[in-house]
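Thread: Modeling a multi-component assembly for a lab meeting

Hi all, long-time lurker, first post. My supervisor asked me to bring a structural picture of a complex we are working on to next week's group meeting, and I have zero experience with this. I have the sequence lines for every component (538 residues in total). Could someone generate the structure of the whole assembly? Inputs are pasted exactly as I received them:
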Amino acid sequence: MKISPINEPHKILVNDISFDLYPGRTTCIVGESGSGKSLTALSIMKLLSAQLKQTGDISFEGQNISQLSNVEMRHYRGKSMAMIFQEPMTSLNPVISIGDQIKEALEVHLDLDKNSLNKKVASLLKEVGIPEDRVSSYPDELSGGQRQRIMIAMSIACEPSILIADEPTTALDVTVQAQILKLLRNLKEKRHMAMLFITHDFGVVEEIADDVIVMYQGQIVEKGSVKEVLKKPKHAYTKALLQCVPDAKGIKKLKPIQHHALI
Amino acid sequence: MAKKIDKNEMLLEAKGLYKTYTQTSGFFEKKQRIIKALNNVSLSIKKGQTLAVVGESGSGKSSLARCLLQLQAIDQGELFFKGQNMTSLNKLDSKSLKRDIQMVFQDPYASLNPRMKIEEILEEGLVIHELGNKKARQVKVRDMIKKVGLSVADLNKYPHQFSGGQRQRIGIARALIVEPQLVICDEPVSALDVSIQAQILLLLKDLQKEFNLSYLFISHDLRVVRHMADEIIVMHQGKIVEQGPTKGIYEKPKANYTRELLNAIPGKHFNFKVS
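Re: Modeling a multi-component assembly
Sure thing. I ran the full set together rather than chain by chain. Output:
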């Protein structure tokens, strides 16, 4: 897969990357700003801006979805694959109660009567750990962690096979982050979803990943199981990036990246 | 780190600080809520050392920074800088105090004036505090920009021409150019990529050694704090729940909340050592 701006076809933002996602496994894309990790995630959902052109194939459950039109893609978005973002407040509508927003996510794809809709909303709230009596609350009445839980409830409402999470815990406090990571891990296991998790934090990778993809300047420089990549990194960039991560034990000497030494 | 500190090396002391905010909500029916941002907070910062303040959002760590800088009045308590009571200073002394305590902010994009050249940004502090004539100021500005790893040619540029990490270097240069004794760093690396974060942390450490600076380092990232701090204060809902030397807090935390924070560090068991 390649991504480049339409009016500058030679400027390649994401260059020739390939990877697979498997049910029940979490793949982390890790990289710094501008490495192309978010573009990669958006392109799977076909949510790239109209200024960008993507080439290459994306297949979902054996079917090539890369040539689908926007209308056809709607059938997949939210139902087969869903996405959560870094800042939950920008993704939630401030003037609609959270219960109604979850209902909306269900109504788009599923044909349910009023009674079973309400039941489904209640069970989703329970699943993400929000008390049922908060169903008529508005987003501004919730904390950041609770809002992210609502986003997660909406994303799993139609039982997608792929959940894409773009830095979902970056804006959260560290104890809340730990709770959300645990929730995502449990949901992935229980529902046997494939999760594509985007982060810049190797600590988070260590907590949640089964497989890791390291991106640098639009390219995949290394991929493998979390054990291989974190314990025995092969590429110079992965090694250098790991040297920058402060550890909780405080024994390591930090060493900044010498970018010119990598290319 | 365990060296003996005599009383003279004490730079800043705060005793029993209180700060409350009143939040009014509701349109038709006004409701008032009192928020205790600082609740009996006492601390001391020694010369040449780094004191880190750790806590989650709403713990009062940024309120503490604002009160120490006297950008906000405290409700109750005492503040001493080198033994002098900070709250009862005359205008002149309070200006010199403002030179002694400088600040580095989290967001390097928001804290630099986009219409000013870097040279003007750096020189402004020197002008305000009347340090040296035009020529001496220029020499100082040139020295300082090199100290933070940028070049003299960068002085003619505007903030938008720099990356996040470079802007944070400029923010550090601006703070240090007036030769402060205490620098308050409020989440100085939270907005930066991890490789840039490492550069800035090392720069702050180098400069600390060179100028014998004291840092009050505010952060929510316990991994970063471990690398920077000599002593740590853990704050929760406006109160200090634990304080002491860094090593002790990480290895033998006493308060439940500290333990909770340490347990939440992502990848805590992994030391990311590359052989």
